[in-house]
């Protein structure tokens, strides 16, 4: 799976280089390969061969690179894992700033893509005919690889959100599986009243989780027009809908604040302290690998909704992008095409536990009917693949999203620490994002 399991946040020092990077962008050089790209150039590059450097943290990356070399013997791929989260993006930003030392192809999460694309660091791949692949991917992931009019990769995976729950705990306390968020709050109240050591969920304040829940609620706090005008508005109707709901859990101390991805968190998932996890479709692999003691106890259900109408959001996911500094963008683009459009590569990704973005794989009988012993024989992909078709459209990230997430804990995160109003915390985050964006040369409109 391409979501970093213990994703670090990119340090502010790396993010502040954004102003220098933006200042150095050449606005007339946004086309692929200097305007000479074509679908035919991809096959010609594969025939000619060459060497590529590929930076990725994914479990399948090394095997995919080896399979590509086998399919195209004239091509050598140097696979490099420079680290995950903070390490990966810091190294990438440093290479971009220096103008050398970076890879030809880099793994980039959807949340980070606008930042690198709008600073002019990536090749727009639309000239290579990638737009012809639109119908092969889910709508939400296809939207995620686009920034403005450009396309900067092909979707590798998706993370439609669902609710993972401990069946044993629900049965013990006679709790029905919630289908709406009001029912979820009622379940939280019932569980914690019956046993104060147990909580419906854990939420210590995570920027990605928060924005995904706002997305599902219909909030659209971030908007970008062109490459310099930004709107930040955490006062919109959807965001308010989410805070009105989640405040009941935070202020009511109905969720614990155990930090995710820690040993304590895994233990709490295993012993029933935490009864649900609302997360992307990559979550089954996490549970199976790191919470083995709870095998047979967990199940998956659709994410609760506000009005009974099925809708969800993405949580995680990434693509591969070609850097402008690549000495062979045609070959690099051909590699990206193979990685996420050729079935041989996709099969390797699926074997490593990835959740696909390709419609054909999501709709295949074999994938949908996969029966998991860990989940008591439940065909979990029937729930997750359905969720992939129900992602709410129109979400955008900031062109400085990586920086935004580094300051979340000091702003919005304080609401979680103090069990206080989330609207106040989000207002503090908004103010800080407006101030930072303005200093970086954006025209920032605040809600």
How would you describe this structure to a colleague?
By secondary structure, this protein is α/β, with parallel strands linked by helices. The protein has 2 domains: 12-158 and 317-381, D-Maltodextrin-Binding Protein, domain 2 (3-Layer(aba) Sandwich); 162-314 and 407-446, D-Maltodextrin-Binding Protein, domain 2, CATH 3.40.190.10. Helices cover 42% and strands 12% of the residues. It has helices at residues 12-15, 18-23, 39-48, 61-71, 86-98, 113-118, 139-144, 167-172, 181-194, 207-216, 237-251, 263-271, 283-290, 329-341, 343-351, 359-363, 365-368, 380-388, 401-406, 413-418, 422-439, and strands spanning 50-55, 75-80, 105-109, 146-147, 150-151, 162-166, 222-225, 229-232, 276-279, 298-302, 318-322, 443-446. The chain has a 4-stranded mixed β-sheet with strand order 2-1-3-11, sandwiched between helices. A 3-stranded antiparallel β-sheet has the order 9-6-10. A 3-stranded mixed β-sheet has the order 7-8-12, with helices on one face. It starts with 11 loop residues before the first helix and ends with a strand. 49% of the residues are buried.
């Amino acid at each position: 799976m391409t979501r970093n399991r213990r994703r670090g946040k990119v340090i502010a020092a790396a993010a502040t280089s954004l102003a220098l990077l933006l200042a150095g962008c050449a606005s007339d050089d946004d086309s692929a390969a200097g305007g000479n790209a074509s679908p035919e150039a991809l096959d010609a590059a594969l025939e000619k061969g060459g060497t590529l450097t590929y930076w990725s943290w994914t479990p399948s990356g090394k095997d995919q690179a080896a399979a590509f070399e086998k399919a195209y013997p004239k091509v050598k791929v140097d696979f490099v894992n420079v680290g995950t989260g903070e390490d990966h993006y810091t190294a990438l930003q440093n290479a971009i700033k220096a103008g050398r030392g970076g890879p030809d192809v880099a793994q980039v999460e959807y949340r980070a893509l606008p930042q690198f694309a709008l600073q002019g660091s990536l090749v727009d791949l639309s000239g290579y005919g990638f737009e012809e692949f639109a119908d092969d991917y889910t709508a939400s992931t296809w939207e995620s690889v686009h920034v403005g009019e450009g396309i900067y990769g092909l979707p590798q995976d998706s993370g439609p959100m669902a609710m993972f729950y401990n069946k044993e705990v629900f049965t013990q306390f006679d709790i029905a599986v919630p289908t709406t968020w009001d029912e979820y709050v009622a379940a939280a109240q019932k569980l914690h009243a019956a046993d104060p050591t147990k909580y419906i969920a854990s939420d210590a304040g995570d920027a990605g989780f928060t924005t995904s829940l706002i997305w599902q609620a219909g909030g659209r706090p971030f908007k970008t027009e062109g490459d310099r005008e930004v709107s930040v508005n955490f006062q919109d109707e959807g965001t308010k809908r989410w805070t009105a709901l989640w405040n009941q859990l935070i202020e009511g101390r109905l969720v614990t604040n155990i930090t995710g991805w820690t040993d304590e968190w895994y233990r709490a998932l295993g012993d029933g302290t935490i009864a649900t996890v609302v997360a992307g479709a990559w979550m089954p692999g996490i549970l199976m690998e790191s919470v083995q003691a709870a095998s047979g106890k967990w199940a998956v259900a659709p994410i609760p909704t506000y009005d009974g109408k099925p809708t969800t959001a993405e949580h995680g996911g990434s693509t591969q992008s070609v850097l402008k500094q690549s000495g062979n963008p045609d070959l690099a683009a051909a590699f990206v095409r193979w990685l996420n459009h050729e079935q041989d590569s996709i099969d390797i990704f699926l074997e490593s536990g990835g959740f696909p973005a390709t419609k054909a794989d999501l709709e295949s009988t074999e994938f949908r009917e996969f029966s998991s012993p860990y989940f008591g024989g439940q065909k979990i992909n029937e729930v997750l693949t359905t969720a992939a078709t129900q992602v709410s459209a129109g979400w955008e990230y900031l062109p400085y999203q990586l920086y935004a997430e580094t300051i979340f804990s000091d702003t919005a995160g304080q609401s979680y620490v103090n069990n206080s109003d989330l609207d106040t915390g989000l207002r503090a985050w908004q103010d800080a994002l407006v101030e930072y964006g303005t200093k970086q040369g954006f025209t920032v409109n605040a809600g």
